[in-house]
Amino acid sequence: MIPDILLEYQTEIWVSIGETFIMVGFAILAALLVGLPIGTFLFLCRKGQLLENQAVFSSLNLIVNIIRSFPFLLLVIFLIPFTRFVMGTAIGTAAATVPMTIIAIAHYSRLVEQSLLDVPRGVIEAAVSMGASVKDIIIKFLYVEARSALVLSMTTSTISFISYSTIMGVVGGGGIGDFAIRYGYQQFQTDLMIYIIIIMVIFVQFIQYAGITLARKIDKR
Amino acid sequence: MITLHNVSKRFGSFEAIESVSLSIKSGEIYGIIGASGAGKSTLLRLMNFIEKPDAGDVIIGDETLNHMRGKRIRQVRQSVAMIFQGYNLVGNKTVYDNVAVPLELAKVPKHDHEERVLESLRFVGLETLKDQYPGQLSGGQKQRVAIARAIVNQPTVLLCDEPTSSLDPNTTAEVLEVLQRINRAFGVTIVIVSHEMDVIKSVCERVTVMAGGRVYDTVEIEPTGVGKMEQSAEGFVERLKSGGEHHDT
């Protein structure tokens, strides 16, 4: 049932999957812990919103745009000095989490901002009229009303993070994508590369399915 | 109860409210009527400081709102409830949870929530729908949930921004009946903004007619009869003073 070549490399494959999990896991964590607040702040600083501040919005917006504009491979290389400064090394899976978390924060914060833009303005107005603080408005109104969109955004982001992680072989980050390149493409084992691609496709399908199912389940509007 | 003194509000170069003064008595049902763009909704939003005036004073009870900031103004808003044309319920919260929100914001002890939420829902006749979501309700039911949410924290003032404009005549009558009962049962001062003459005439004791951001006139009305909807301030005043007759627009 399982192709021989996968069995032959199963140890390496499991290690690679573990490396991908570490990189993507840190990216998700960074997206949630930093990207979500930044995206929310971006939304709140927009014109006509509760914390309207054109200077802060423009600056933050520019930074997010610049990071997202970078071709990811160049971002990884550009960040090598910073990664070395933060992690003590620019090589390996742990070091690879630095560019991954930075792109994750920029990526998810933009999607969070866009998700919150879909919350009806009247809901925010009602919250203000009830005497809600900004913190209350975010937690009891914005996130509740946008929760489905936030889950879908995280789903999209996670799939992008998996894609980004395949590049991390450049700095010795490893991961399943890097495995496919090194053992499949570079050693002329095309079948191995195809099997790995199939594994990744199945994995992405599962994430997409889980994300859509959860988003649908929690959307009561 | 509510006093506006020479209040003005600009949006860019557009003068939405121009030196408006009015006084609303405690326990009164007060109407504000006018054509689109007359400034009536802005005027209502000035009463709970959702919009801050560029000039003039807004006084609720014996408190001047002008110099209030942050927590203080939020506390005032908790006693000045508001309902909207679009209901503005949180779609992902059940009816019960929507109504409980003001209690959470006012930090009312959790063990008191159930009794007060159910009491509010009972008052508007929707206790049995407490586990439904707003998306499962009709327009009239949504507005009644919004009213339950507005009264759950026992406000002294209820501001109503076009509360029946999205509703059919029967549902409009139901919602107005609920507002009248709230006024009678709890002595809540109610301010209704509407462009519908029938709505104003059926429940309000006094009405201010707005035109071009100014008070055109303030009229005492008899709570009987219905009037033709005119799109001019003169028309509104004429209909209000004459006692009115029923016409469709």
Automatic annotation (TrEMBL), chain A:
PROSITE patterns xrefs: ABC_TM1
InterPro entries per UniProt: AA_ABC_Transporter_Permease, MetI-like, MetI-like_sf
Gene3D superfamilies: MetI-like
Membrane topology per record: Multi-pass membrane protein
Annotated ranges, domain ABC transmembrane type-1: 17-208
Keyword annotations: Cell membrane, Membrane, Transmembrane, Transmembrane helix, Transport
Residues annotated as transmembrane: 20-44, 56-80, 86-106, 149-172, 192-215
Major place of residence: membrane
Pfam families, per the entry: BPD_transp_1
Compartment list: Cell membrane
Similarity remark: Belongs to the binding-protein-dependent transport system permease family.
The protein, known as: D-methionine transport system permease protein
Organism of origin: Alkalibacillus flavidus
UniProtKB/TrEMBL annotation, chain B:
Superkingdom of the source species: Bacteria
Keywords for this protein: Amino-acid transport, ATP-binding, Cell membrane, Membrane, Nucleotide-binding, Translocase, Transport
Presence of the UniProt keyword Signal in the record: no
Key word Ribonucleoprotein present: no
Record field: transmembrane: none
GO MF annotation list: ATP binding
Start and end residues of each ABC transporter domain: 2-237
InterPro entries recorded: AAA+_ATPase (IPR003593), ABC_transporter-like_ATP-bd (IPR003439), ABC_transporter-like_CS (IPR017871), MetN_ABC_transporter-like (IPR050086), P-loop_NTPase (IPR027417)
PANTHER family named in the record: AMINO ACID IMPORT ATP-BINDING PROTEIN (PTHR43166), METHIONINE IMPORT ATP-BINDING PROTEIN METN (PTHR43166:SF30)
Name of the featured protein: D-methionine transport system ATP-binding protein
Organism: Alkalibacillus flavidus
